[in-house]
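Researcher: We're teaching a course module on how sequence relates to structure. For the next exercise, students receive a sequence and then see the predicted structure as tokens, so they can try to spot secondary structure elements on their own. Here is the exercise chain.
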Amino acid sequence: MTLSRTLEKWRFWIRAHNRHGVHSPFVYRFLDEGLYRREYKKFPPQKRLLIALVDYMAPGKAMACDPQSRMAPWLRAERPDIRWEGLPTDLCICDTPGEELLAFLDRPELWDKDTSVFVGNLRKNHKHMAYWDRATRHPAVRVVLETYPAGLLLFRTQQAPQHFRIRI
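Model: And here is the predicted structure for the students to work with:
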């Protein structure tokens, strides 16, 4: 890891919170009852975030932004009860932020207020971070949970727009 990547990671870590620094009941419960559960510690951070989201939110339908997704087949094997067809979807998996993510956000017929979007590899390069920043500013996105390796976008219309940086 280069010095600049190490500094970037430390800067994120200093600005991020655990569940005790979060002032949203919904996000606090997700972290406490989902992401920080002991049985998820065996997974790498991106997979931990995705599996915690799936187990906590219990989506009925999922889709992958990219047909070449590596996270979607992994999730299919881990949670075979999720359907992978039908619209609007409850969960969208984007392995990396890019044009596919922005296209999904711009098509409201694909999602509703209960849809969650998992986005991996946020900090692979500056281009990915630029797409992620654009996605977080989309007018329909209400809640952003950002970890260092991955993030979640939620359309919860009943919640004020908030951006949380979370330690994982």
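Model: If you want an answer key for the exercise: The helical segments are 3-15, 25-35, 45-57, 71-78, 99-105, 126-136. The CA atoms of residues 3 and 94 lie 28 Å apart.
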